[in-house]
Structure formats: structure tokens, C-alpha cells
Amino acid sequence: MPRLSASLGSLGAALTRRDVLRIGLPALLAANPVRAAKPRGGFGRAKSVLVVFASGGQSQFETYDPKPDAPEEIRGAFGSIPTTVPGLRFCEHLPKLAKLAHRVSVVKSVMHDDLDHGSAVYLSLTGRFHPRKSSNPDPSPNDYPALGAVLKRVRPAARLPYTAIHVNGPLLVPLRPSPGLNGGFLGHGFEPYTVGDPTDDGELTGGLEQLSDVSAARFQGRQQLLGNLDGTRYPSTADHATMVRQAYDVLKSPQARSAFDLSRESAAVRDRYGRHRSGQACLLARRLVEVGVPWVTTFFNYTIRGQDQHPDETEAYGWDTHNDIFDAMKTHLLPRWDATFAVLLDDLHQRGLLDTTLVVGMGEFGRAPKVALEPRFAGASPGRKHWAGCYSVVMAGAGVTPGSVYGASDRIGAYPSDRPVTPADLTATMFYALGLDPGGHYADSTNRPSIISEGTPITGLWA
């Protein structure tokens, strides 16, 4: 029974497996609850967490951790530029983000050992290793729940119908939905609400409008009738009841409905974010944070790798750049990331939302130190293969020390040389910023307890 001693403190050392079976783990946890570490740093600073997920494995070398002094086969074809933080350099194709470096913290020492997209996405979005490490498994009802689903279980939004929303989803790896996106063993009722293509107005607002000829009394009557039918036609499950309640809550909440309506934004603002899926997804994410949604995950790319089928369509590109990495980065990936992510950070700052929003720009892993042609993949020029030994994540807001660097990679960017960080530590940090003890527990429908996060909050991000 892993982590029993860690969960139960000194009591766990005196218990046998037979004791646990006899007494019951839920009862033991209630009798000996996990004590939160003394809050410090950024504990509770965030009202919302906004994850911008760079699907496919964003290269650390071509973004936030270039190695200008390394040999060319490691350094790659791009140069580096200074940022607004002395000594910190970004890839030359991130000029807008370089001018905003004083607002972010770059974590250069994230590491794990899962080397395929599906299971690594699962790790990133649940904080847990998949039982089939380095694979592309299908989603399962036995999976651990997505982080937003956990938040809904331990602290559901009080004033809004949704605690967690996934934008520009579901994430495809590359053709089927990834594991780690749903409610897992918590059930469908805890799944984050998923918004598809944000450039499709019908996708965002279709079905959310109340009919003008339906009065409040008729609306309430229809709701009561549906409840009666549920009770007579089939047993109403908790999942179904939750989803029906959420649907009615949205219909009754003008604030919730209007948040999805991007037409309320000016043409200039929509143009600044970019009139493409990534840009409008980030704009929608800002609107959701603005109305108080506690957890928003935006998939910057809806697929990890669509360029094989559509090499001329930037919309289809993911960050899985095995070959042709420099053309893909320069032409398709970096311009959009630089422009849109910079606009998002600036917009949140200008609106006073960055102080209470933890923004996390991350992917499932990085890319390999050596540039090489991979014959098993499409493309005529070299790229970089999967690499989870060391990669970079950007954080901003919620009191995170701006203009800082946490951890470091070695001279060729292969492994951490200072303060390594795991995906579990990242998830613990997100919950910590929201004022939740990552070492606390939640229960599923059978009252089986699970720890919120197996990681340790990166309190060093806050001065």
C-alpha cells in the first residue's frame, strides 16, 4: 500500500496491512488527517489557475533555454536574444515574450521518465504516472481524474456552474483523445466542461440561449418535468443529475452564458490574440478567468502532431517536431506562441487579473539535446526526438516572483543541474497557489481516499 506511512504520519509506522483492512483507510484518515505545511509564499494567492498546454512536447532549446555556447548539433539553427531580465536569454523567435520576461518565472529543471505522448500528457494533467508508462493508452474510467476534476471534488465553484473548463479540446494524440482529460474514477459528473473549436461561434454559444417565448415559470416547469421523468424512466445516477444541474445553471446564469460569447470582444482585441484556434482559445480562457472560473486548461494546439497530414496548415501543427523542427518552429509554431501567449500575459496584467491568476505555460515533455534526422518520421531535415530528462515551464502571476529563473539544466540541456522539479511538483504548486493543501485527501463515490497531489509545492517560486 504505497504512501501509507507518508499519509498517516507516525501512526502509519505502527499499522499492518491487516490493521488497515480491519479499521478501514477512510476511518484512519479521518482520525489522523494530513496536516498542511505552514502556509507561506504564494499559498492562496490565486483565485484561478490557467494552464496553457503546448501539446506535443515543446522544445526547451528553441524557447526558454537556448544553449548558445554548445556545439551546433546541440545548439540548433536558431540564435538567442537577450530579455528584459539580465542574463536570461530566449530563442530569437520569441521577441515579444523576451520583452515580457520580467513578468514571468522560467522553471528550467522539470524532469520525468515517460517518453510517449499519451501517458506523458496523462502525467502532466493528473500528476500521476499512467500504469502503462511510455505508451498511448485510451482513456479509462479507472484513470486518475484531471486536475480540474479534483478541484471540483474538493472545492467546487460556489457561484458558477463550472469549476473547470478545457478549451480547444479534446486534445488528440494525434487522432484519438488523450487520457487524463476527464473525471476518471470520480465519474462524468466531475469532468471539466470541454469547449471545442473556439473559432466556431456555434460551438461556443449554441444551445445556451434561452428561448424568448419560454417564461421563467415554463422553464421551471420543464425542469421539474424532466426530474419526474428521470425518476420514472430510469434510475437517475449522480453523474447524470450533476450534468443536468450544470446545464440548467448555465441557462439561468447570464454571466456564465456571456463568458462564452467572443463576439462581445472588440475586433481589435480578437485580432491581437489571433483569429485562429490558439488565439481565440487563449482569449476565451481570459474571459473565463475574468468571470471567476477557478481552473481553465487551454490546449494551444488541439493535436500533438497534425502536420504529417496537413503540412501547409499552421492550424494543424503540434509541437511533436521529430524532423523539420526548424522550419516548423520558425514558420508555424513560434510566431503564434510568441504573439498569443505574450498578449494573454499582457492582457491579464492590464486587467488586474494576473495578481490572482497562476498562469502555467507547459507541455508534456521537451526535446532531445541532439539534432538528428529520424528516418521513421516524415520530413527531410533534422529534428529532435522526445526528451523528458529536462525541459522548461513558464509560470506567471499569483505572486510568483517575476523576472526569475528556478532551477537550471546542464550545459547541453539534457538533465537538471539544480533544483529538479517533477510534474507532480507542478500540480502540487497549482493547488498550493489556490490555497489547498496538496497533501490533503479526497474520496471517490465508494469513499476510497486519494491524496490530492504526490508532489511538493515549489515554494521557491515566491520570494
Describe the structure.
The strands form five sheets. This protein has an eight-stranded mixed β-sheet, sandwiched between helices. Strands 2-3 form a two-stranded antiparallel ribbon. A two-stranded antiparallel ribbon has the order 9-10. The protein starts with a helix and ends in a 12-residue tail after the last strand. It contains 16 helices and 16 strands. Helix content is 33%, strand content 13%. It has 463 residues and is an alpha/beta fold. It has three domains: 1-33, no CATH class; 40-205 and 263-461, Alkaline Phosphatase, subunit A (3-Layer(aba) Sandwich), CATH 3.40.720; 209-259, no CATH class. A hairpin with a 6-residue loop joins strand 2 and strand 3 (89-91).
Mean pLDDT: 87
Strand order of the largest sheet: 6-5-7-1-8-11-4-12
| Terminal-residue CA separation | 37 Å
- CATH architecture name of the largest domain: 3-Layer(aba) Sandwich
The dominant shape is globular
Tally of strands: 16
Gyration radius from CA atoms, angstroms:
23 Å
Q: How many domains in all?
A: 3
User: What do we call the CATH homologous superfamily of the largest domain?
Assistant: Alkaline Phosphatase, subunit A
Give the helix tally: 16
CATH top level label of the largest domain = Alpha Beta
The computed structural class is alpha/beta
Low-pLDDT stretches: 1-23, 25-36, 232-236
Please indicate the percent range of residues in DSSP E strands (runs of 2 or more).
Answer: 5-15%
What is the helical fraction, as a range of percent?
A: 25-40%
Largest sheet, described in full?
Answer: 8 strands, mixed
| CATH fold-level label of the largest domain | Alkaline Phosphatase, subunit A
